[in-house]
Amino acid sequence: MAGHGGRGSRGGSPGAQGYLQPILTSCRPPRRWANMAAVDEPAKPVANGGGGGDEHDDDSDDDAGAANGAEAGGAAKKKKKRKPKKKKKNPTSQTEPPTVPVSQLFPDKKYPAGEEVEYRDDNRYRTTSEEKRHLDNINADFLTDYREAAEVHRQVRQYAQRTIRPGQTLTEIAEGIENSVRALTGHQGLAEGDCMVAGMGFPCGLSINHCAAHFTPNAGNKLVLQQDDVMKVDFGVHVNGRIVDSAFTLAFEPKYDNLLAAVKAATNAGVAEAGIDARVGEIGGVIQEVMESYEVELGGTTYPVKSIRNLTGHTIMPYSIHGTKAVPIVKSNDQTKMEEGDVFAIETFGSTGAGYVRDEGEVSHYAKNGDVGKVDLRLSSAKSLLNVINKNFGTLPFCRRYLDRLGQDKYLLGLNSLVNAGVVESYPPLCDKKGSYTAQFEHTILIRPTVKEVISRGEDY
């Protein structure tokens, strides 16, 4: 989710080495799991023994009766013996579309690591330092949560990349991604507080063409993805408040290939430069140099790819997508250093337009402001809605569709009141000039004590 250079930050401070491939199947219809519990077969009927004659029968009859009785007794014993029910085995592969919680695919909770990159220069010692290894080990829960969220993100986005096509509505695409995230985290988010355990880290952004960030369809939106569109797909997954923020761009016409290549290369350059003691202003300079080395030819006109100078990467805090540090995507004099323990979203945006975005259009994204104290709210609808937000999202971003899903209605007056009071912050769509095209790629990185881990890295990007 984009950091906007014109806004204040919220929250407090605080090739793929080691990457294991995610478990995915080839494209095929959903299959039924073969390893189901065995069904007991009904016992075959057995002839009742004993009672074949009276006490005056001869010995042979007695013997026969005894034999029949023994058989009947044996049959009765056999009847009581039931085959032990086989335990249901966890599925070993994902369905299409994804529906199996990743916790079932990895019952030992050993989720794939991201791309682990050793530190360079003065920090090279960290890779083998026993002290730093110990610090890594005591953060085991932190890593497990982040790796689970990252695996959910990879599986959902890779399915989305294979199946999103022109002709689909943006609502269909957004809800498909969001419902898959809920299924794979195992939390539907309908029970009070369930969204806070795991699920969407922020709404699925689907920003088209000149719109760079922060657009998701509100209820009733009829927009349809077109063949000539360039769409940024930006969504977050969280487990226990640890948010993985990662984005990619889809285009269906080869004329946009250079635009996408420029932004992907710039993001990877920023990721490569990131690490302990790296200065964010210098990282921005590297990103800009790579980004602006590309050109795009559209309709016979050549356009330079420009870094969008008022969008930034950012730190990520527990349950808060925007921390206090920003990573510019143009060169700056910002001497802020990356530090051990930081979590960063390295995201870059390229444009064929002015390279500058402004607020435009209907708001869909919101988040409670974690820095605001108690505010006297006069509207009862605002008080009621704030209670819903506190219990279901906390400081996690949400959109209007999420309120609709929880059964809220006629909430706009209360929501606007919360925004005006500064309790909730709104995030309007951010757009360059009309007629231009923008692209985005983004990764989440963990600045661990021993290595830098690009937690969201996958085979796709």
Automatic annotation (TrEMBL):
For this protein, the record's Gene3D superfamilies field holds: Creatinase/methionine aminopeptidase superfamily, Winged helix-like DNA-binding domain superfamily/Winged helix DNA-binding domain
Q: Provide the E.C. number(s) assigned to this enzyme.
A: 3.4.11.18
Q: Which residues lie in Low complexity bias regions? A: 65-75
Bias-annotated ranges (Acidic residues): 55-64
Write one Gene Ontology MF term. metal ion binding
Domain (Peptidase M24): residue spans on this chain: 146-446
**List of residues binding substrate:** H214, H322
UniProt-annotated binding residues for a divalent metal cation 1? D234, D245, E442
Where does this protein have compositionally biased stretches of type Gly residues?
A: 1-15
Which NCBIfam families does the record cross-reference, listed alphabetically? met_pdase_II
Which named protein is this?
A: Methionine aminopeptidase 2
